[in-house]
Amino acid sequence: MAPYESEKTTTAGEAAGAPGAGRRRAAxxxxxxxxxxxxxxxxxxxxxxxDSGDPDLPEITAAQLIEKIAQSDVERLSGTVKITTDLGLxxxxxxxxxxxxxxxxxxxxxxxxxxxxxxxxxxxxxTHTLRIAVDxxxxxxxxxxENAAEYSxxxxxxxxxxYDSASNEVYHGTVDxxxxxxxxxxxxxxxxxAEEALKAVDDTTSVTVDxxxxxxxxxxxxxVVEPKRAxxxxxxxxxxxxxxxxxxxKFTLTPASGGAAVVDVGFTKVSFxxxxxxxxxxxPPKGAKVTEEGAPERSGKPGKPERGPKxxxxxxxxxxxxxxxxxxxNTIVAYEDGxxxxxxxxxxxxxxxxxxxxxxxxxxxxxGTGTVFSTRLVNALITEDGKAYVxxxxxxxxxxxxxxxx
Length: 406
Description:
Blueprint: H1 12-17, H2 38-42, H3 62-70, E1 76-85, H4 95-103, H5 116-119, E2 126-135, E3 139-145, E4 150-156, E5 159-164, E6 169-174, H6 190-199, E7 205-215, E8 218-227, E9 234-242, E10 248-255, E11 263-271, E12 289-292, H7 312-317, E13 322-325, E14 332-336, H8 351-359, E15 361-365, E16 368-374, E17 379-383, E18 387-391, H9 395-404
Parallel strand pairs: 6-12
Antiparallel strand pairs: 1-2, 1-11, 2-3, 3-4, 4-5, 5-6, 7-8, 8-9, 9-10, 10-11, 13-14, 14-18, 15-16, 16-17, 17-18
């Protein structure tokens, strides 16, 4: 292993102060905006690909490696990505998939199985293989490979096509090639997850260069991002960065509780050659059912669906009584609905009480009583008086926040 960090650890201020670290190239466009909704479903996912080598590369500091990522200008590539998600969600016998599909409109009368906002919720759990092709901001293709079928999402100019071969259904939408729609996409590659992780780097964060790796036949540096303070459920984030292009090739998030990665996404094959133009050509197959974006829904009211999830800040603006507690990796979002009526958490009996108890853990504190619903990354405390505390923090941290906010 090559020793290359003369400046092994940085803080947020140092990383932000690195020359050019604030510059982001416009080549951040892997999948069209219509699939941005998957971000909400896949937040905090993915396991890791095994390193197949330990290449000897020139020395580099953490600040320099962050700058290298920021200056990456890859506009064309094709390859295969393996993504694994293990959030540790409770087994609801398939109910969780039904709830997610229903929330996104799948399964409703007039809905389409080719609608990307519904189809790509599958990435929220399990292991999946994606084929990806990119040719600048106006041409991208993502294919989700299944056992006996394939789902493809194609962005070519102003057109966005979703095609589900299993049902022979097509979804067609458009994007504004001159506006905000252009170049947006959901997290589906190591670059997407790395970009979000690096936004969290501040003075509560340790950032180091920890050796080298070989990913998809490419030599890479390993950047490790870790919270400095106790209380976060995030253990460490490892990003393998291509030493030539600065493109993140692999992203792995491991929980503080240990065990398998919560999210692991990485290229198994990658090429930086321009994909053939025919890759992005699409015409609905004969006999396929075609659903146009903005077609009348079951209610009979036409409307253009929103282009994906809002940011936490936008969501907070739309919810009265929402505030944040703490900072950095230990940030907790607190919400009070104002009614004083929360989930039943006491000894009220009944099927609902028992069902909720089977999904969460009852807790008590100065705030009263409540139920903590846990995954391996994000936890939520719902109190009996209608308050909610959510964050990538431990159960104890949520209880302390509720006590402080009583």
